[in-house]
Structures are given as structure tokens and as C-alpha cells.
Amino acid sequence: MKLQGKKIILGITGSIAAYKAAFLLRLLVKEGAEVQVVITPAGKEFITPVTLSALSGKPVISEFFGANDGTWHSHVDLGLWADAMLVAPATAATLGKMANGIADNMLVTTYLSAKCPVFVAPAMDLDMFLHPSTQRNISILKEYGNRIIEPAVGELASGLEGKGRMQEPEHILNTLVEFFSQKKNC
What is the DSSP letter of 62? Predict the structure, then answer.
């Protein structure tokens, strides 16, 4: 188990690639990671919190407050808890919010509070990915020290072919495993 004892926040946004997050979550847990899922409201339109909770063994966090019981989900506590944060899939909207500090959902506030390394796996149509504003936001995120897991080239949900597919879960897992193994060898 290559991620034994690692605490990972998995941020999921509103992309058709959210279905891959379930496979990624399963792989992370299988490698020994403790994973807390934070999902945007739009993300819940693509994959259910029930599925993600069953795979992680933890309640999924989406809102600042629990439904009708006054429970507060602290983005600050999450940011301090994690050894890594992974946003996969990351939409153009979320990239823009992260790059510009627009803290209007639990995922972005958690990102802004994170003290750990952050990995971002963009997923969107090729024209959105290549748009200058998206590329600028990615550059800003890199300047902040985030690690971008470049999207793959292939068939997209739109039916077009090009760069924008979220990397496969195995590739993303290997990126995290490699990061933690290099960190251990320092």
C-alpha cells in the first residue's frame, strides 16, 4: 500500500469526467490513503455523494453547513488535516476560482486554506482548455506552486478529439505515489 497513512482531500467538480473520480477514489483507498471527498454543487449533478461516501467510508462534504442540524464543516480544519489535495476533475470554472481566490464554495475555500501540496487534473472540452483565460489560470496556479496533471488527448464528451480529457485514474494515482515516494527519499 503505497499511500498508507496519507490523508488526501479529493475535490470533485461539475464535469462529465466526475465518473472517473469514483475509480480514482477506489484506487486511493486501495493504496491505503484516507480520503475526504469535497464536491461542488455542480459535481453532485454528475456523481452522487452516496457513491463517493460508500467508496471512501466517510461522509462527503459539499456545503459549509450540515442540513438542518447546524453542523459546520471547517475548510480550515480540512486544509490542516491533509497531506495532499487533489482536484480531479477540475473544470475551467473551478480553475478560474482557484486562480483568483473566488471562495464561493466549500472546495475553493478548502483549497485556499490548504497547507499541503495541491494537484489539479483539468477536464474540459479542447477549446475551453486552449482558451487564453484557462491557460492563464493554469499558469497562475503553477506560479502558486500547484502541480498540474496535464489532460490527455483523445475523444471528448462533445464528440470532438483533442486535449482536455482528464487523465486516467491510474495515471493520477501514479503521480501521487511518485510524489510521496520522492518526498520520502529526500
Answer: -
